Fold these 4 entries.
Entry 1:
Amino acid sequence: MNEFTPEGWKMETPENRAAFQSASSLADACRDRQILEGRAVICDSSHNLVVDCGCMRGLIPREEGAIGMNDGSVRDIAVISRVNRPVCFLVTGFQKNEDGKTIALLSRRAAQELCMKEYVSTLVPGDIVNARITHLETFGAFADIGCGIVSLLPIDMISVSRIDHPRERFSVGMDITAVIKAIDNGRISLTHKELLGTWEENAALFSPGETVAGIIRSVESYGAFVELTPNLAGLAEIKEGISPGQQASVYIKSIIPSKMKVKLIIVDTFQYDYRPCAPDYFYHEKHMDRFVYSPESSEKLVETVFTSS
């Protein structure tokens, strides 16, 4: 039985490597409709992908490069950009090339259609899935949820603490976990912040009297919002010369669950270019129906309810 994972996850698995050992093992994978992964080494002038299949080369014809290539809903860049990256595929047959060598005929489209039928179509809001970041835009991150099928994670769904650009949280190729937020006409949107913990779970990492690291996210007339974790920010007293994006060391004056407030004093700030780290998750189940961010004692209810439309 196939396990549907983001492209790149199967490359070094024993099952995938075993299939590349010989023409016979590739033929077995063809018969069993086993989804394999290989590295695309060339995209020729006709936009066919040549794939390293270990014992032989494989060919993904342009029209087999992805769902939507035939009707034009997917552009050729979707194929061109796979060069030197893993691609998933089904082996559909074998043929001799001009030199008389046997090559494997492959279809990434068929692998994606199988993934859509047996996996993606079964997903409902609240399901938690593995994903791999494929590219970043100002409005959100795109993530592969299986066999190169990409979904959007909007920027305001990435974390409770607001950011200016998804690159502050993710980098291309990063593996994350996400929640199915909504499904509209087959299009899946994701959310992420519900996995990063409640206000109380994050606040429990800190204590009044500590001086800790933070990131200044915004500066207002009444104070500066400083991110302590992706799902927790506190309000600090204004200090001259501070600006959004700066790293900060902050003193924790108080933590007030009923008002969901963390009061801070900025000790020092500095500029620092950093690469985002893999997220730390508080929730590790396969599905959630409801996420309540706010403490029970809070005057305000902040929640996400996952419902199928």
Note: The longest strand covers residues 86-96.
Entry 2:
Amino acid sequence: MSRADHMDVAAYALGVLDEHDTERFEEHLATCWACAAELETMVPVVGMLSDIDGETMTALEQTQTNPALLDRTLVSVRAHRRRTRFRQMLATAAAVVVFGGLTGVGFSTITEDSRPGVQAQPSIGAPSGPPVTSRPADPGDPPIGGPGSQPEGEKINETDATTGVEATFFVASKDFGTGVNFILGKLPGPRVCRLVVVRKNNTTEIISTWSVPGGGYGTNQSPGLLTLGAATSTPTSEIKHFQVQSVDANGVASPLVTVKPD
């Protein structure tokens, strides 16, 4: 069997022969057991060679008489196959990226939980229900601790004879120092106020500041009382007194009411 006949076997297997050459080869195939055997061995790899077109086969036939052309053809075929594989890998990677971006977590959920016998477990999160909102304390709110209750600590009532401001303090000794809750009334506004701790050694500490609106607190215009809380690191035993002060625009403070723990 000549080399040309062998090339005809490959070309016939790939279906690239024209009608005339196909008929001629089939006539030859009927009487040539060698070509028939060669054709049989090529059947399993026809799918692998199906991407080689007629031009490539023609080039391969020409290389039988030109070794240099054979080398160039082989290089070109190898490069073409590398480019084809590279494009296939890029296409596959792009598809994965696009699909993953569209499906997000759902993709991983499908791949992980679609196995037989695997059941998705309910997630544990925040309890359902209406959203929780908060609001600042209002002077009209119930007394500290709710109706019928009062904060812990020593209760002290005081009304300043000059300003008329009324104060109720609850002073509690704590491991961290002293906690204090206080209620103010007959406090006119507008003004800025602060609560000052005066120690027995005559040093002072500002532990709370707030603004009073125009209507004030516990007044005829605004009857609601002001309820606040504060804390200091100073032990109760070292406190001389608490003083509510009014501070003007220049930062000058004047006393409104003074409360002395027992």
Note: Strands lie at 154-159, 166-174, 177-185, 191-199, 204-212, 226-232, 239-247, 253-259.
Entry 3:
Amino acid sequence: WLVYCKHIPASSLEHTFSLDTQRLQKRYVELQRSLHPDNFSQKSSKEQEYSEEQSALVNNAYRTLQKPLSRAVYMLELRGVLLEEGTDAAADPAFLLEVLEINESLAETRSQDEVSTIGRSVREKLKDLTERMNSSLNKGDLLTAKELLAQMKYFTNIEEKVKDRITEGC
């Protein structure tokens, strides 16, 4: 958020993973009201350009912070943790087996109720991972946070598959 909203005093920003999403949305709306390009249509081209740039930055910041997975990636990057693609090979074999089993169950499921049950289970796992991520980042335990991020990616992927199945009607 700090990177995206340069014109906000740093003292008013918190570098925490946990956040109040309603407060985030309220602040987003406030910023967009003041920065939106429509408000600058009668201004100089330089002011219009600045407005477009800042409005785009606020949009990007909001999208990043709104979801736990992208927020976790951002928070780790702020702390200097580089996240290379395809580095999940070191993941715990038991965890990978669990993910494989959930994916297989989802693929074999034929009823909407069963898909919904899997979806609830995955949301609970994501909620737990989000709480653990918050704790790890607050403690400065970046190694654990990086491992949790990998798990969050897997479960977020499954959550998307569940949403697709529900939309398709199984």
Note: Residues 1-12 have pLDDT under 50 and may be disordered.
Entry 4:
Amino acid sequence: MFTGIVQGIAVVEDIAAVTGLSTFAIRLPDNTAEGVTIGASVAINGTCLTVTRQSGNTLYFDAMQETLTLTTLGELKPGQAVNFERAARIGDEIGGHLLSGHVHTTASVAEILRPENNVTLWFEVPEPWVRYIFPKGFIAINGASLTIGEVEGNRFNVHLIPETLRATTFGTIEEGMKVNIEIDSQTQTIVDTLARLGYDRPAPEGS
């Protein structure tokens, strides 16, 4: 499990691709890989991956074709920055909301607004997933737990403070980029339960 509090920005050092599988070498900042063991879980842009090898601050992860297809990991390039969070431990403070690291869908950055001292990001999400997105609800974007602002059709926004921009890759995000989305599990449970009772349309296929 993860908390949605991004612990820093890592860098993709290398990607080795073979049929149906990619191995990522991702370098974490100094002193953030201490105590990592083979088999540990780390969220990379919100996607839970398993450590297969370690060399200093560089961790290696394997991603299957399904993961590459359903998330933005298949679009990563060497030198690219990513958000990371190591798995939560019992007793850790839950500053965001509990996440599984299982990405539900991707969204596109539709618009970036820069009022004084903050940034507002608008995202477009596939229509079937709008049913889980509510104003003031929780959502995870590239592994960061955020509060939803406004919702308009299949678009929603989030408001980011300078600290969030500094500590995550949102500081360099651009329009047209895709991001990983994990919806709040409690929201999904409530909405799907109401749907089964006939109060809403069916859940997205494969949810």
Note: The mean pLDDT is 92.
